[in-house]
């Protein structure tokens, strides 16, 4: 392990390749190219700082010291670290090589050339531009330069589909990094197998964070060289990562290709392009039930997460949306795939995990249109049980303990985000996202969940942020003929509605519900938004506040022929069993 760490440190601190020197150091770097570097990481919230550099013999040095410790003790540790290692040699080795040399003289000089006193605390002593002297070697101190803490490429690469690296930075930002993409260059066939080695050449147009390989890249691996940077045009050490496999051929025409013709550009000022989409969680797609019963028509490879993520990232990026509400988002998918990908396209992501589940809800908003004011997420079952806001509903459900218990068993969540328009700060919007109980006989449970959700949303839009319009998206698991849809759209549901008895005689309840919000389905009532082998129907909606918002346009859904090309959904050309709803909304 120590050997691996030292190797990584040497790679980080070693002189940069000549072809990367400008990008790695940055046009305004103050580091003279003739002097090596000592990287100091010092974060006020942490008790220790670290000093890292590489000696002339190629060995790496990395020391951690208390920030409040006097500098003299840190310098003594640096001097003695290598000396102590030499002193540990065996007697035979010492006899052959002679006694170890005395410890080198180690000193630290300020930027103006003055020796820093030994009693100065480490946190104050190790400043940007200082010079560390170790024996005859001198190192220019770089304090907290931008650095990459993580850099990964997706395992699956498809021609025509965007490749979005996952990267995390420290003392920098992904938007300020420099990117250079390379493609594999196969050895000439005439070269003998023993001498054949693959090289790398720069990929055409490969200087952006997102790279879309062409058909010409099929069969070739990709490499990314990333140089971390910050908003001050300061750059750190470049790192590179190679793809684990080659680019493969794409699936051809996809169900969303024609829809992208309507969404080539971001919606103009005053418009809010909104998307809701159940993207099919991997934990559900990979079950034996899914493969053999729910989606037996779907090629096994196209149910794999890496394959579906390629399709999904291209689909969502092509909608140029301002708001995206997703359901059935695996926690790892949000962190490792969708979050980094949509971040590269200018969207900030928020995630809400379902209680005791591995999937949940994700809301993305366009950074240059909106800023986040606050979040008000809830678990619907917990809110019903504990929040005084729902005390009246609890009392009315008291005579129906079995129904109450059924609601408490459900892990459904409500994600609520309040956003502020950057172009007009007086305008705010409340974006709600949910996924209600799925069971076909759970109509009464969905009614109660919808009532809790609407009460909470109204509290946020009338009490926390008065007179704030709302957009309510999600997979509501109910068709337009159900009580849930009628309740949300019309503002009331009678106690004799058939959905109150949907769970059978022993689990029914009879109450009436009302809410004062004026809502309508922005995309109307499509024939279906979910199309699988044994069912198709409209389950997904974008409900909008009709007092403040109106529909500018609805992006047409795929044709029935496109949906059924491979019998049903998901398929090799569509990543989910649901279809995204997309509309452009405008302020009244």
TrEMBL record:
UniProt keyword terms in alphabetical order: Exonuclease, Hydrolase, Magnesium, Metal-binding, Mitochondrion, mRNA processing, Nuclease, Phosphoprotein, Transit peptide
Residues covered by region (Disordered): 80-103
Cited Pfam families: Exo_endo_phos, PDE12-like_N
Major subcellular location class: mitochondrion
Subcellular location: Mitochondrion matrix
UniProt keyword annotation of Metal-binding present: yes
Single Gene Ontology BP annotation: mRNA processing
Domain Endonuclease/exonuclease/phosphatase: 276-578
Cofactors required: Mg(2+)
InterPro entries with a match to the protein in the record: CCR4/nocturin_mRNA_transcr, Endo/exonu/phosph_ase_sf, Endo/exonuclease/phosphatase, PDE12-like_N
Gene Ontology terms: cellular component: mitochondrial matrix
Matching Gene3D superfamilies: Endonuclease/exonuclease/phosphatase
Residue ranges of every copy of the 2',5'-phosphodiesterase 12-like N-terminal domain listed in the record: 145-248
Superkingdom of the organism of origin: Eukaryota
Record-given protein name: 2',5'-phosphodiesterase 12
Gene source species: Eublepharis macularius
């Amino acid at each position: 392990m120590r050997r691996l760490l030292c190797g990584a440190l040497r790679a980080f601190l070693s002189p940069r390749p000549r072809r990367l020197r400008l990008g790695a150091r940055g046009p305004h770097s103050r580091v003279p190219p003739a002097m090596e570097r000592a990287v100091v990481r010092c974060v006020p919230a942490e008790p220790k700082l670290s000093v890292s550099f590489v000696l002339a013999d190629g060995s790496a040095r990395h020391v951690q010291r208390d920030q409040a410790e006097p500098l003299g003790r840190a310098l003594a540790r640096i001097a003695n670290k290598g000396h102590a290692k030499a002193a540990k040699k065996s007697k035979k080795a010492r006899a052959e090589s002679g006694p170890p040399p005395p410890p080198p003289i180690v000193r630290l000089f300020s930027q103006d050339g003055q020796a820093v006193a030994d009693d100065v605390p480490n946190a104050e002593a190790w400043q940007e531009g200082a010079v560390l002297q170790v024996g005859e070697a001198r190192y220019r101190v770089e304090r907290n330069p931008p650095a990459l803490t993580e850099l990964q490429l997706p395992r699956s690469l498809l021609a025509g589909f965007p490749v979005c690296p996952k990267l995390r930075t420290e003392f920098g930002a992904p938007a300020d990094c420099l990117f250079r993409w390379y493609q594999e260059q196969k050895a000439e066939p005439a070269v003998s197998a023993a001498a054949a080695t693959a090289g790398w050449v720069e990929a055409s147009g490969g200087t952006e964070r997102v790279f879309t390989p062409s058909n010409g890249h099929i069969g070739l691996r990709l490499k990314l060289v990333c140089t971390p940077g910050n908003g001050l045009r300061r750059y750190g050490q470049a790192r590179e990562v190679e793809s684990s496999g080659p680019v493969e051929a794409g699936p051809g025409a996809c169900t969303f290709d024609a829809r992208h013709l309507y969404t080539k550009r971001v919606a103009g000022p005053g418009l809010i392009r909104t998307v809701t989409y159940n993207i099919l969680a991997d934990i559900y797609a990979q079950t034996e039930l899914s493969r053999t019963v729910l989606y037996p028509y779907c090629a096994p490879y196209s149910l794999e997460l890496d394959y579906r993520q390629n399709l999904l990232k291209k689909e969502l990026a092509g909608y140029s949306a301002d708001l995206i509400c997703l359901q059935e988002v695996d926690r790892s998918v949000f962190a490792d795939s969708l979050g980094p990908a949509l971040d590269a396209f200018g969207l900030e992501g928020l995630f809400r995990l379902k209680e005791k589940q591995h999937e949940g809800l994700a809301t993305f908003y366009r950074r240059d249109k909106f800023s986040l004011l606050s979040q008000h997420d809830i678990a619907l079952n917990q809110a019903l049980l504990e929040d005084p806001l729902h005390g009246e509903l609890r009392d009315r459900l008291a005579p129906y303990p079995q129904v109450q218990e059924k609601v408490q068993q459900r892990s459904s969540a409500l994600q609520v985000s309040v956003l502020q328009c950057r172009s007009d700060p007086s305008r705010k919007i409340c974006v709600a996202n949910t996924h209600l109980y799925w069971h076909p006989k759970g109509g009464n449970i969905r009614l109660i969940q919808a009532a809790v959700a609407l009460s909470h949303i109204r509290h946020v839009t009338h009490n926390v942020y008065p007179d704030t319009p709302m957009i309510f998206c999600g997979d509501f698991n109910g068709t337009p003929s159900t009580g849930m849809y009628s309740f949300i759209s019309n503002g009331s549901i009678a106690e004799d509605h058939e959905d109150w008895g949907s769970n059978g005689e022993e689990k029914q309840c009879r109450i009436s519900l009302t809410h004062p919000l004026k809502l309508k389905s922005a995309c109307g009532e499509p024939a279906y938004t979910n199309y699988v082998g044994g069912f198709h129907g409209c389950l997904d909606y974008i409900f909008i506040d009709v007092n403040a918002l109106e529909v500018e346009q609805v992006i047409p859904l795929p044709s029935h022929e496109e949906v059924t090309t491979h019998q049903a959904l998901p398929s090799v050309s569509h990543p989910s069993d649901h279809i995204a709803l997309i509309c452009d909304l405008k302020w009244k």
